[in-house]
Amino acid sequence: MSVISKKICFLGDYGVGKTSLIRRFVDRQFSDQYLSTLGVKISRKLVEIPKQNSLESQQIQLLIWDLEGRTKFHAITPSYLQGATGAVIVADINRQDTIDRVREHAQLATSVNPKGIKLIVALNKADLQEDEFYETEKFSDYPEIIVTYMTSAKTGQNVDEIFQKLTHSMMKRTNI
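Predicted structure:
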């Protein structure tokens, strides 16, 4: 069975939990110690998805690019985004300014990959949210954003789901 590689980028402001979400998915670990990502960190995870109209499955090597969120390196972010077929835009559910910049991150990802990139929004740190958050449809007017999830790297809430949904979406485009 051949393995297909797909590049996924994680975008968002600093401190929203991009690295924590990736670590939860790849290593099944969580640490509440904040370590700022400098530049980019690349992780890999092999997943299997069922082939359309078949009992067989396809192995997908996810190349997960964790892009730092500090604005001083913002100028090099487009070069990291090149060749991505999917991206997760992460915002901190408790910091409205990070939610307000989701469209800015989406616009950047689509401008670098104009032939199509699938985007998912992860409203992270849901475990710290006391009130119910009802704005998950807030980005439905942006066609590249296929879905918005409430996530928690700490509890694992919807972490696997964001990767599964994005992988299936990227593979639909290639008819696998």
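Summary: The longest strand covers residues 40-50.
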